[in-house]
Amino acid sequence: MKNTNPKPLKEREVSNKKSHVAVAALFAAAGSADATNTITRGSWDLYSGTTPIATGLPNEQSCVDVIIARTDPAPTIYTCREKISALPVAAPAPAPSPAPPSPGVIHSSSFGSDEFPLSEGGRWTHTPNSWTFVQSQGGSAFGSNGITNSYDDSYAYLGGVTGDYTIRATVRRQSTCSSSCELELLLRVTDDSNNARAVEMLFDSNGTVQPVRWNGPFGSFYIYGSADSCPVPWTPSSELRSGDVIVAQASGNTFRAWVNGMLKACVVDATMSKGAPGIGFFIRPGVTNNALSISDVTVSTP
After folding, report:
1. d(C-alpha 77, C-alpha 211), whole Å
2. Which partner for 202 in 26, 61, 210, 279 could form a disulfide, CB atoms 3.0-4.6 Å apart?
3. CA angle (157 as vertex; 196, 221 as ends), nearest 5
4. Is-contact 255 166, C-beta < 8 A?
5. What is the DSSP string of 228-241?
6. What burial letters (b/e) apply to 86-112, b meaning 16+ CB within 10 Å?
7. ∠208-254-184 over CA atoms, to 5°?
């Protein structure tokens, strides 16, 4: 375009007007809810036909200024083009998969109150029957059965707890404890005035872990054997000591027990499908009731 000839300039202005409408439409689309591109405006280039005259100009006015400054022997039509980048709008990041649920604590206690029988506001229960009650004193829980030398284990369980769960406790041992001391973590406990049913994980003071099923009637029990195992070698650990951590878990019809993180017993029993977690103790006559106790207990979802 000759700078003295207004006709090409008029054509440029008309052409630019149309371009502005198109660019405005692009930017409007970029801000719409269903936009698929993000629009970024860039530099300007000047062309005569398909021949580039000037590139990288900062704005449209700079492109026009270059045209005005040119001298052409004949009327010439120039084209100012703006570089517009259209980038696909990033798809929303998929929502992260939920993390596996963290174990939920159902009940936790360090036995801060002295109680006989153990209750903690009604959380622990035991239907009065031929078995004895658990008590708490001095920051630990222990039995009250060191009298008859019978099957009157002391027990308490968390009423209303169902499903699968894990019960964890810390051992407290007195110097009066001999091989006559037993701790019990109980799984699938149910009871009434004549019966007590449970899977007992018996932690003997000598380190043996023995699963036993309470069948219901007083004195009726079943000692699980290798035919019931998952299997796990039932080998004694060292004697129980204060600070040892004992754990039992009910998962469906599978029942496991650990001492200090080492799996010690595993049995499967399809007859024991429901019931609550509990704690139990057995002490023979001549041994103080608190000879082997637990200083804390936590019941949680597995």
Report:
1. 97
2. 210
3. 30
4. no
5. GBSS------SPP-
6. eeeeeeeeeeeeeeeeeeeebbebebe
7. 35
**Alpha-carbon dihedral 236, 242, 245, 250, rounded to 10 degrees:** 70
Identify whether the C-beta of residue 138 lies closer than 8 Å to the C-beta of residue 293.
no
Report the C-alpha gap between 201 and 302 in whole angstroms: 17
Domain positions in the chain: 6-88, 105-300
At 81 the three-state DSSP class reads strand
17/203 Cα distance (integer angstroms): 90
- Helices 60-69, 6-30: axis angle to 10 degrees equals 170
The CA distance from 212 to 219, in Å, is: 12
109-120 pLDDT, tens digit per residue, is: 999 999 999 999
pLDDT digits (tens, 9 = 90+) for 53-76: 888 888 888 888 888 888 888 888
Residue with tokens 């000598």: 206
pLDDT digits (tens, 9 = 90+) for 81-101: 888 887 776 666 665 545 444
Task: Considering the domain delimited by 105-300, tell me its CATH architecture.
Answer: Sandwich (2.60)
Task: Please state whether the predicted TM-score (pTM) of the whole model is above 0.70.
Answer: no
Task: For residues 206 and 203, give the distance between their C-alpha atoms in angstroms, rounded to a whole number.
Answer: 8
Could you give the 3-state DSSP secondary structure of residue 182? strand
Q: Strand, coil or helix: what is 298?
A: strand
253 touches 239 (CB < 8 A): no
